[in-house]
Amino acid sequence: MAALCEAFTLCGLGPSGAVGLGAGVLALEPGPDSDHVLLTDRGRTATLFKVSDQKPLGCWSVKHGQMITCPVVCNFETHEYIAVHDDKVLRIWKDEDVNLDKVFKATLSADVYRIHSLPHGEPLVLFKGGGVRTLDVLLEAPQQEIENFISDEVIKWSEAFLEGQEPILIFATEKDGDYFIYLQKFKLNILQKYKLEQQESSNPLSFTAYIKNQIITLLCLYSNDSIYKVLIPLQQHSEEEEQILSKSLLLKLSVSGSVLKGTSFAVLDKDHVAVLGSLTAFGEESKECLTIWNTKFQTLQTSKELPLGTSGQLWCYGEKFFFTHGKVLTVNLYKCETSSLAAAVGKLKDSQTSDASFLNWNTLNDEELVVSLQSQQSVTLKSESKMTLRSKRSSVAKAPSDTLTVGQLLLDIKDSSSAAVEEELKQLLSKAQMPDVQATIGCVITALINRCKTDPMFYPQNFLIQLVQKGELSYSLCPDLMAVALEKKDMHLLQICLQRFPDIPEEITYACLKLFLSISDDYLERTDVNLDSVLCYIDIESNNKEVKTEIVENGFNTELEEDSCDTTFTKETLLKNDVEFCPVGPQRAALLNAVLHSAYSETFLLPHLKDLPAQQAVLFLRYLHYLYVKSSEKINTTLPGVLSPTINQIMDWMCLLLDAHFTVMVMLPEAKGLLSNLHKFVRAQVRFYSELNKIEGSLQELQRLKRQKDSQAYSIEVLELI
Length: 722
Hints:
Elements: E1 2-12, E2 25-30, E3 36-41, E4 45-50, E5 55-61, E6 68-75, E7 80-85, E8 89-93, E9 104-107, E10 112-116, E11 124-127, E12 132-134, H1 135-140, E13 154-163, E14 166-175, E15 178-185, E16 190-196, E17 204-212, E18 215-222, E19 226-233, E20 243-245, E21 248-252, E22 254-255, E23 258-269, E24 272-281, E25 287-294, E26 299-305, E27 315-316, E28 320-325, E29 328-336, H2 341-344, H3 366-382, H4 386-391, H5 393-415, H6 418-430, H7 437-454, H8 461-470, H9 480-488, H10 491-500, H11 506-518, H12 521-525, E30 538-540, E31 547-549, H13 571-574, H14 586-597, H15 602-609, H16 614-633, H17 647-667, H18 669-694, H19 696-704
Parallel strand pairs: 16-20
Antiparallel strand pairs: 1-29, 2-3, 3-4, 4-5, 6-7, 7-8, 8-9, 10-11, 11-12, 13-14, 14-15, 15-16, 17-18, 18-19, 19-21, 22-23, 23-24, 24-25, 25-26, 27-28, 28-29, 30-31
Organism: Nothoprocta pentlandii
Domain Nucleolar protein 11 N-terminal: 1-335
Domain Nucleolar protein 11 C-terminal: 408-721
């Protein structure tokens, strides 16, 4: 039995996009461990991602004018990364390296097709002419001559395995419509060539292979909507120069009159394959889908529609699918279990159903959500021991009623009146306990958002806020929630989501920031926003329009002498009370603080920030400057209040905003004074800390002085610091 589980976004692929992926994805390779992947774009950049955190850990680019020409791979033995740019230039680096111009470089004598990294072996380098070298042998003499076995053929695909301790490389080539398979054995230094049996009016589109018991199983996806299997024994030795490989039909990609036009596929286990392609039926528009098929029983196990389109590429690592969907790279978890006829035809009563929280609620309609919850809760009851059932007979008897209440709520949300839905939501929220809180709330929110999309008059704001606060949710569990909140300009809900969701895409964070900066003050004054993060350092006037700061306690004076190298700090200068005004109102400040708290990747956020209008960028920088000054007034550089931004968050956003808009800031007259004040303030702090560093040794020496033994005696001691 196979099933698709939760899906989430790994990164954006916009035209100006994240990690420079406007030209598309070249390849995705496994990283140093099962939770990391290496993404190579069709340009200059390679990015290392931690999948569970959905964040990049490192990004490396070659210079302008250069291009990465084969997928970047990880050397699992040395934990180094290997890339080839401009076909012949080899680069090797480690995590701590930043500039690829300064890492190891070797120029090779022939064009490289691909590098294959093996778990317990030396990486293999396959050249476009068919020659193969292990990386260590190649680095001994980078300019060594490389054989050209296939001068008139073009390599279409390659893969490497370890059989025992022997590395084996297989690759497919094409010439004039004929396809050939090459098998390179390194221990015996043997290169075997085979010709693939032709298929009438059909060509292979994609290949994959695996090795077991000294036999390579080669699977080929053909343009006639079929997958064929070819067996290649490793022990076979023949004097024939070119043997013909016969193939057998493994799977026909058709079901109930619909045909899947596959573009790429992956082997999941001995009985299951995943195919990405377009599902077409007579008289209907084709739909791009991710599907899982049972090859043993020739059945379609599950499918997922991808309405935003894909690039036709599919990768599979560690029970995770990776594919492009619209302008994002999506990760979709899956599970595969032992194949049986009952599972293949959908009649298996699965007693090991995965937790409902792993379902992708956004792909299910309301009826499917009900069924999913009911099956999950019934499974939970069945898994209890008989002793537990005897001791909790009454609670078990009540469980179906609770299940029906949640299920009925999901159906009522679809078409019942707003009053009826709100009444049932009150009952749901009043429950002290509910089975699988996260999954249930995620399911209810999805149903509410679906109703909001179809009924513009329906928007239960208070209940959405309570539901978000009640469960530990994430953006990926209900991705449409923030989109609807942005459309409705629901500031309070957006504020809570920014504070609580750990995986908000940078595009959504930017959309929230732009809305918070552009919305009118009159609208904000009528908006209910949590002000806990600003009340302790912003004083709200009675007219609620002018906001001023508290009195400076231990602040810095930004008007220190500018041209003097030796700054004199007088008592009057350090104790000067300077009243400044916050450039935004308390509601806007609280919303901007929520943005500062959200997690982000600089690589992905910077392209969006460049689209921020200049006036809004200046206003945001003024507020960041205000926060920076306020934080520096305190000895511990910490703003008071709940969820107030930290000095690191303020500095990071300030640097990011200046990186995105520095040229514009310099040209704007209204920003000139702001940049000048910011420069003076930073320079004053640098000088102040420089002076502190000068007396650091003396202060440490004072701490070592022994206290007077006679504590009753009164004395005044003057210590001169030289």
